[in-house]
Design goal:
Helix Hairpins, Heat Shock Protein 90, 5-stranded mixed sheet, 11 helices, 13 strands
Length: 482
């Protein structure tokens, strides 16, 4: 039992998948941009706080202050005693509002002592900066965001900083450096909104362009399928549609060429049946006429009537045989039965079969064959029929002689059958190998068409060269065809 499998629709591939990809890419870009800017702000904030502590560390060691680089973010700090009581606020916090912020930060740190004081036992060397404890966090005070960092010092308070002192006189102090990042975060949110709006607008524009492209593609596809249906139904007045995309235009031109080939084939087929009917009607009329005359006793010379009937029946048999061979060659590509044989022997045997016809027309047959015997791989029966048609035509048109010759190249044998008859006109040359095309003294017009089909089946070529002196049919065949 064969199950019906669902296949994806082309419009899903052309619209929904790219749309999903656009949304994912733009979302990823927005996320990456947001993370990158946040990391930048965080680094700037930490760097500004670190600069503050670097300055306090120099003062702690009584070293000269160094010129610090300008920072985009301003910082402040407060000094607490070991019980987290506020002792000093930096000069930037002189207003009551800023004092409230300092107290709120101090209360927050004091309330989170379990977190901030999860430290090891104080080291023996209390003046070693490598053992100073540090903690940092982002807290919210009165709807404002502050980045804070706490660091512990051992020494004594000297105005606005802690100064290193002897271990006997040293006390524990905490310094909290902080920066108000609310403005920066608000700016970041506004920037995110702006970037998001730009990305959404860009995505919307891309989606609109993608939808328009998909719409034009579907329209072109519909026009193309409709055009193919008209070709299949052979509707009158069909014309190549106007396409938006070049690819569909190229497909349409290919379909138009196919349509022209179909029309040409149908016209050829129509002429074929007309010609077959005509060629069969003539001998059948003669056979019927003589048969009725014999039946009614109207013919006194029975022998002559019998000969006419026999000749006409032979003519019909020959025509039917040629049509069958031509049909077989065109419908079955593997019909040739190839074998290897001597070309010299083949040509000699073939030409001797025409000895009676040559004598009847007083023609001389000359050979121009190489002395060395050349072998060729081909279907001997079909090749015999093909060359027989050419030799028969040569006998029909020759005046005094026919020349049978061949030459060799690296991979081909070139067979020439030449007669000294009247030249073939240029108009006849164009149609010489078409079915039912008959020249002067021609018969059915099937022979040369069949010859070309046989030669083509052997991957060869046949053409004619004609002048006032001679007419030469040239056949090029591969020596060893695949």
């Amino acid at each position: 039992m064969r199950f019906k499998t669902s296949k994806p629709r082309l419009k899903n591939r052309l619209f929904w998948q790219p749309l999903l990809l656009i949304l994912v890419v733009f979302g990823a870009l927005l996320l990456l941009f947001n993370l990158s800017v946040r990391q930048l702000i965080e680094r700037q904030t930490r760097s500004a706080i670190q600069e503050q502590f670097n300055r306090l560390d120099l003062l702690y060691r009584s070293e000269a202050l160094k010129t610090s680089s300008e920072s985009l973010i301003s910082t402040s700090y407060v000094i607490l005693d070991q019980d987290f009581h506020l002792l000093y606020t930096s000069s930037g916090l002189s207003h009551q509002e800023d004092d409230d912020v300092a107290e709120a930060i101090t209360d927050h740190v004091q309330g989170e002592q379990s977190l901030w004081q999860a430290w090891q036992t104080a080291p023996t060397n209390r003046t070693s900066l490598s053992h100073l404890e540090q903690r940092s966090a982002l807290i919210e005070v009165e709807d404002d965001q502050y980045q804070i960092r706490l660091q512990k010092y051992f020494g004594h308070l000297n105005g606005n900083y802690i100064q290193q002192s002897d271990i006997k006189d040293a006390e524990t102090y905490y310094v909290i450096a902080f920066a108000n990042v609310t403005t920066v975060l608000v700016w970041l949110n506004q920037l995110n909104k702006l970037v998001a709006i730009l990305l959404v607008m860009s995505a919307g524009l891309l989606v609109a362009l993608l939808w328009l492209s998909n719409l034009n593609t579907r329209r072109d596809f519909w026009h193309f399928t409709s055009y193919l249906e008209k070709i299949g139904k052979r509707q009158e007045g069909r014309q190549l549609p106007q396409f938006k995309f070049k690819e569909f235009e190229e497909l349409g031109l290919s379909a138009q060429q196919m349509d022209q080939l179909i029309s040409s084939s149908q016209e050829t087929q129509k002429r074929f049946f007309q010609n077959v009917s005509h060629e069969l009607r003539t001998p059948l009329t003669s056979v019927n006429g003589y048969a009725e005359a014999l039946k009614s006793g109207a013919v006194s010379d029975v022998q002559s009537a019998s000969e006419v009937i026999y000749k006409e029946s032979q003519r019909m048999t020959e025509l039917v045989d040629q049509l069958l061979i031509l049909s077989r060659l065109e419908s079955i590509q593997d019909s040739v039965q190839k074998e290897t044989f001597s070309l010299n022997d083949f040509l000699y045997d073939l030409s001797w079969r025409f000895e009676q016809q040559l004598q009847k027309r007083h023609l001389q047959l000359r050979y121009q064959l190489p002395e060395s015997y050349q072998e060729i791989t081909a279907d001997e029966t079909l090749l015999e029929r093909a060359l027989s048609n050419v030799i028969s035509n040569a006998i029909r048109y020759a005046r005094t002689q026919i020349v049978l010759a061949y030459d060799l190249t690296d991979e081909q044998v070139i067979i020439r059958i030449t007669n000294d008859g009247e030249p073939i006109s240029d108009e006849d040359k164009e149609h010489l190998f078409e079915r039912f095309y008959t020249g002067k003294s021609g018969q059915f017009g099937i022979g040369l068409a069949m010859t070309k089909a046989i030669i083509t089946q052997h991957s060869g070529r046949i053409w004619v060269e004609s002048s006032n002196q001679e007419t030469c049919f040239i056949i090029a065949l591969p020596i060893h065809s695949a």
